[in-house]
Amino acid sequence: MRLLPTRTPRGTAGTPGAPSPHVTAPAHRGAGVLEPAATVSRRSLLRTSGTVMLGGGALAVVGVTTAACTVGSPAPEVDPLQSLADQAGTDAAYAARLTAADPDRAQALQEIAAERRAHADALTAEIHRAAGTTPDTTDATTTVPASDPSAPLAPPTLDGLRAQLADSRRSAADAVPDLTGYRAGLVGSVGASCAAELKVLIP
Do 182 and 97 form a contact (C-beta atoms < 8 A)? Predict the structure, then answer.
């Protein structure tokens, strides 16, 4: 019996089981889709990352802008009664100082000082009530302000007190039209008291 030589299939290049070069392997249905899909995914990822980074930057800018607005926000308005309270305290201190300089009018001057102190206290209490704060009992409402604290105060005079009370009365009268309710009544009463002090106590 003749033994026939074993032939290696064409295209195997000596490698068992290798496909023939003339036979085209069937294309995998996903082979042509995965690579483009992977490329698109990477681009999408880059775009998404860039968007997130830009979004973070925008948030940072908004945060800085908000902080700047907060820092630059205007200070709260001063209560219109504050200047009247300051005037009342100044008048009270002036009248108290004048008492020692004018003994003949000591009783009237003491009464003026007490009334103007009461005005300062009432106005200050209303200011704190409206602001929802607590008055500081250590505040000196009867201190006469001076441009130079170290300079001695000029001696008080009766004409000087009259001028201050007249100015306080005008300030109260000018403030009333812009106020309502209890505040208008309080300021109106303060102005009327100043007028009475000028007419009755130190005419």
Answer: no
CB 120 within 8 A of CB 93: no
Low-confidence ranges of the chain (pLDDT < 50): 1-4, 6, 8-9, 11-40, 45-46, 48-70, 140-149
Instruction: Confirm if 179 and 187 have CB atoms less than 8 A apart.
Output: yes
Q: What is the pTM of this model?
A: 0.60
